[in-house]
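Form P-L/3: holo structure prediction, ligand N-(5'-phosphopyridoxyl)-D-alanine.
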Amino acid sequence: MPELAYVNGIFVELSEARIPIEDRGYQFADGVYEVIGTYNGRPFAMEEHLVRLQYSLDELAIRLNVSDYGIGRIVSAGIRRANFEETLVYIQITRGVAPRRHEFPSADVKPSIVMTFKSLERLPQEIYDKGVKLISFPDLRWGRCDIKSTALLANVLAKQQATKQGAFEALLVNTEGFITEGSSTSVFWVKQEKLFVTPSGKNILPSITRKILMEIAGELGIETCQFACRLEDLLKADEVILAGTTTEAVSVTEIDEKVIGTGSPGVMVKRIRRAFLNRC
Ligand code: PDD
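OUTPUT (holo model):
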């Protein structure tokens, strides 16, 4: 089955899809994105992803109404057309194509709407059974990480360093020494059976998986708490967990070569992942 793309109203094979050089996404990273996965062929948490997409667009004053344009309907149509067992949907909306000047182009420039539909291969079971290693890395990102912007160079550099060191992910640490999140994941930790996350705000992405896992924890009667945590305190946690659309919930067994908890996936990650999969 060929991979599929959608470009401004037209479905084409991904290898045939083109965007102009003067697209502001290409020249300025002046755009936003979403990543949605399917379970049993159905897009998971689509409504939440579309709400966040509208938020990102509004914060950058990119004039597009997600529901008027029918983004949800196009996503569903693309999943059907692509016909994979499970699909990874990427949506990117940029401010559009205009001569390269930093300020916004005139109001008649229309946003560019692009999607790709690829076969979703989930992480190997071994990752969930054994857990993963992280490195810490300086959080070099900008002050609006709550916007799901395509400007991901700082995330790319962090992930590349992790890959180079044989780690699964880079855990970002801000200039005050507090952890924020992974380069493409949210982070949770467990202390005395309580589940902690970094406080919501402009320095982290409002992750959909994080929101759902917090709801699940509430349903399971697990106490949750938003708390600013230093890297050295995180190392003393009973468990550390990474979460995200393609990651689900993965146990972290080592950070910067220091063992976390028992060094193997704990009770909490197993419990919340099981409950999460039951919901998908
Ligand atoms: N990344 N934090 C960051 C910085 C992210 O880029 C992501 C997702 C998450 C998890 O968010 P969610 O649960 O909504 O997927 C947290 C996507 C998957 C990516 O860039 O590919």
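COMMENT: The CA atoms of residues 146 and 201 lie 7 Å apart.
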